[in-house]
Write a structure and sequence with these properties.
It holds the Pfam family BPD_transp_1. Belongs to the binding-protein-dependent transport system permease family. Its main location: membrane. It is a multi-pass membrane protein. One of its GO terms (cellular component) is plasma membrane. With 318 residues, the chain is an all-alpha fold. The protein folds into two domains: 51 residues, no CATH class; 253 residues, MetI-like (MetI-like fold, Orthogonal Bundle). The chain has 15 helices and two strands. Strands 1-2 form a two-stranded antiparallel ribbon. A hairpin with an 8-residue loop joins β1 and β2. α8 packs antiparallel against α12, α11 runs antiparallel to α14 and α13 runs antiparallel to α14. The longest helix is centred in the first third of the chain and has 32 residues. It is flat, with a radius of gyration of 27 Å.
Length: 318
């Protein structure tokens, strides 16, 4: 009798637990396999790469030696590494800024009532889905120092051809141009989603007050885009700081390693020089910088929102 009662009590408790945590259990069942797969494919390799930063390990057959923070000290004392980090930051900021501005301008055009705007939007997004390897090779054909399209145009105009690969400013310029061409479509679509989410009645109220297009853009559109702007700036910065393929296939880090960014340096350390310790060190430093920059920007952009909600909460408590 006691066993039957205890079994019923356990059954009742189990049913209550299932009902109370139904949503959490469903979410766990759906996300659990995905998280497990991510840990195997990405999570564990990432953690292992971070741990490598505390070892001196050059060559796959060599034995790793635990050296504490020596690799991190070397990173900030060796110009090869901290210069690569600085180039990643300022080139990433340049690419991100130009991409966001160009994408915002393209989104404004996409949002206009144009004929065939669906085709127009698709054309803008084509670069984002094309292969980087293929498009960079086409890009290099245009920049060929002898028979490149751009140099042929310069020759026809009576100018001397330019060897783009031997000029640091031109190399940076073409990396930025390619990166913007590649990313402007995705940025434009996200901006477009933000533009279409702004309440139409705000524009109508602004028109009643006599606002022109410029004033509506400044006082209605831009404030309404604040949430989407926070997202797109953060994701754009993260992606731009980690530029790698453009550098590898357009300049190869040259001339004289002046366009070598940190991710390219990590690739060279890991797969060319087999300096696994420094590759892990650079990876961890870049991850920390990206995280801190993202958190600081997010905190700054949402500061006004938090300050607006604090008095309301305090009044509720009173």
């Amino acid at each position: 009798m006691e066993r039957a009662v205890s079994a019923r009590v356990k059954q009742t408790k189990l049913k209550r637990f299932l009902v109370r945590h139904r949503d959490a259990l469903i979410a766990t069942a759906i996300l659990g396999p995905m998280i497990f797969w991510w840990m195997i494919v990405s999570g564990f390799p990432t953690l292992f790469g971070f741990v490598l930063g505390f070892f001196d390990w050059v060559g796959i057959q060599a034995h790793p030696k635990f050296i504490w923070f020596d690799n991190y000290v070397r990173f900030f004392h060796d110009p090869l590494y901290y210069n690569a980090l600085l180039r990643s930051i300022w080139m990433g900021a340049l690419v991100s800024g130009v991409t966001l501005l160009a994408g915002f301008g393209a989104a404004l055009l996409m949002n206009m009532p144009l004929f065939g705007k669906g085709i127009y939007r698709s054309v803008w997004y084509i670069p984002a889905v094309t292969s980087t390897v293929a498009t960079t090779q086409i890009f290099n054909i245009f920049l060929d120092p002898t028979n490149g399209v751009i140099n042929n145009i310069l020759k026809s105009m009576g100018h001397q051809p330019i060897i783009w690969q031997f000029s640091v400013p031109w190399s940076v310029f073409w990396i930025v141009v390619y990166s913007v061409w590649k990313g402007v479509g995705g940025a434009a679509l996200i901006w477009l989603a933000g533009l279409q989410s702004v309440d139409v009645t705000l524009y109508e109220a602004a028109e009643i007050d006599g606002a022109n297009r410029r004033q509506k853009l400044r006082y209605v559109t831009i404030p309404g885009l604040k949430p989407i702007a926070t997202y797109i700036v953060i994701t754009s910065l993260i992606g731009a700081i980690q530029i790698y393929e453009q550098v590898m296939f357009i300049t190869g880090g040259g001339p004289y390693s002046q366009t070598e960014v940190l991710v390219f340096r990590i690739y060279r350390d890991a797969f060319w020089d087999f300096n696994l310790g420094m590759a892990g060190t650079s990876s961890l430093i870049m991850a920390v910088i990206v995280f801190v920059a993202t958190a600081a920007y997010y905190r700054r952009t949402t500061k006004s929102d938090r300050s607006d909600t604090i008095p309301i909460k305090m009044k509720g408590r009173k």
